[in-house]
Amino acid sequence: MAFVPGLTLCRRFHDEVLAPLLARRLPGLRYAAGLLDGGSELLGLDTPRSTDHDWGPRAQLFVADSADVAPVRAVLDAELPGEFLGWPARFVGGPDVRLGVARVDGDRHGVNVDVLGGWLCGRLGCDPSAGMEVADWLSVPTQRLAELTGGAVFHDGLDGALIAARARLAWYPDDVWRHVLASGWHRVGQAEHLAGRCAEVGDELGSRVVTGGLARDLMRLGLLLHRRWPPYAKWLGTVFARLPAAEPVREALAVALGPGDWPARQAGLVRALETVATWTNDTGLAAAVDPSVRPFHDRPFLVLHADRLTAALRAAVRDPALRARPPVGAVDQYLDNVAVLTRPERVRRVAAAVLAD
Known about the structure:
Layout: H1 6-25, E1 31-35, E2 59-63, H2 69-79, E3 83-84, E4 87-88, E5 90-92, E6 101-102, E7 108-109, E8 111-115, H3 116-124, H4 134-138, H5 142-149, E9 152-156, H6 161-168, H7 174-191, H8 194-200, H9 204-225, H10 233-241, H11 247-256, H12 262-282, E10 294-296, E11 299-303, H13 307-316, H14 320-323, H15 338-341, H16 344-355
Parallel strand pairs: 2-8
Antiparallel strand pairs: 1-2, 1-9, 3-4, 5-6, 5-7, 10-11
Helix pairs in contact: 1-2, 7-9, 7-13, 8-9, 9-10, 9-12, 11-12
């Protein structure tokens, strides 16, 4: 069977199956539909490998009133086909998976039905239609924002509410953006000298581990500087490489993470640090900082002294309360645990504790 990109398949499933079925069985129903709940296809990165789980003809369907949920589910349960364009449209899987494995004789279809505001709260921990406070922005992982602003809307018959919610999540307010960037550079500043120190004592593995962490932080910063939500680890390199300006940094980090010795590793890091620092200046979000590296005090390691960028960005934050916050940033800048980041109630508890400092 020829592979079809998931977004294409699911849009056709809505247009050719879902929409006609709802119009025939529930005429006048106001609803929105799209594909927003996770999966490689939301970023246009699915391949034939993706079809082995949580992939197939599916959608999220949103209604205006909770009283509409049960009737819509009943129609879908009874009448959705088991196959579409040759692809199974039913799924088999346990309670801990989103859909499971697509199979014609599966026990469930791939169309969820929810009230929009409740579904958004379940994904984000808040409903963006009521506005996003600073604490809300800092409590949502960028992977979640990438999903909700990626994917596609197939239909919005809720007076544009789904489209409006996605528009509100398109990007940080400038002050929050400055704070998150400042916090990202603060992370770099905490570690940029450590790779050289590890190498100096003969710990090549440790030096590479530190370099890997710096590469991850610089790639995330690069995406943030180009107004792209950084995805989780599986797709970070792929999405970063798609930035129009990425190639010099990608090449530099490939050298830094390659088989060379410490001088080669440092040369790659230097090029990457200076380039991403230049990108920061190019945003105009803060006063420009000299992007050249320099020795780490009297030690023979070249560093950016990244906290110079942190200081410039923090000084440019207009909101006094946000400017006074410690530079820890958004939740996925200090937390890296899937079991927490995928559960908004856990994320918000952690973020509240950190932000209460």
